[in-house]
């Protein structure tokens, strides 16, 4: 349909896929902010590689109605913006309470808005930090580790308690998530005769989903739900949890599908962003914070995760980091 979306900080590099077109448009100054969706990291990953604030909202915060559906609530909508306040303002416009949602998020207190959270101090928070992930064999770039450590140090300097957190994942979680994800590609049927128009990875996931029995799908859903409850329980003692958003610096356009094998494409994607999908399983809100840039001028984000329904803490904390780190005027050369 169109050429690949590219991060405006280096047009030879991908904008992160999925909602990357929206992220590239905002980062380049074509739009003030944009709507995006996130089923495994598709808001936070483009936000990281394009230097933006991207909010993955709580499950049920933004209605998928009247026709959208996702039996597990993995996929949510949210805002992409250059500043925390812009993202919060767009979230206020998007988050219209719809009580017919299967699992509506708790309402904000009367008189409270997400935008107001961007202008209040978060207080002294207890923040866990972790590099634990269910994805094996990941390689973390030095630039990513530097962003993780720099953010940890800044949080301490701002008066927060930062402690290391060990997150354990259920056995078989990764396989179960992939099984569910593949099966859910079949929810919306394709018109006859159009399968050849799909990208190879999309066809691969649909064929993989079609090969799964109903018993396997139900069992996979049970594993994902159980793992989500366990992960939330482990994170509940903390006001927020810090992880990297992606494991590597932005990848070249064509890196993921290079070679034409869709299984390799998917495996590369999982190793590139091994911390994002587990938050879709839990239904918690998470935010990409554009904290660092490499020596070559490429953005490196970090992820903050909050308790279910608590986007306001994330917004307040992100705004505090923005004021301290000053990324709001960091624009690409095309600006």
Biggest beta sheet attributes:
8 strands, mixed
Question: How do the strands of the widest beta sheet line up side by side?
Answer: 1-3-2-7-8-6-4-5
Radius of gyration: 19 Å
Give the helix proportion (percent range). 25-40%
Output the helix-strand order.
Answer: HEHEEHHEHEHHHEHHEEH
Give a verbal description of the structure:
This protein has 335 residues and is of the alpha+beta class. It has 11 helices and 8 strands. An 8-stranded mixed β-sheet has the order 1-3-2-7-8-6-4-5, sandwiched between helices. α5 links the parallel β4 and β5. α6 crosses α7, α6 packs across α8 and α7 packs across α9. It starts with 19 loop residues before the first helix and ends in a 10-residue tail after the last helix.
Characteristics:
8-stranded mixed β-sheet; alpha+beta; 335 residues; 37% helix
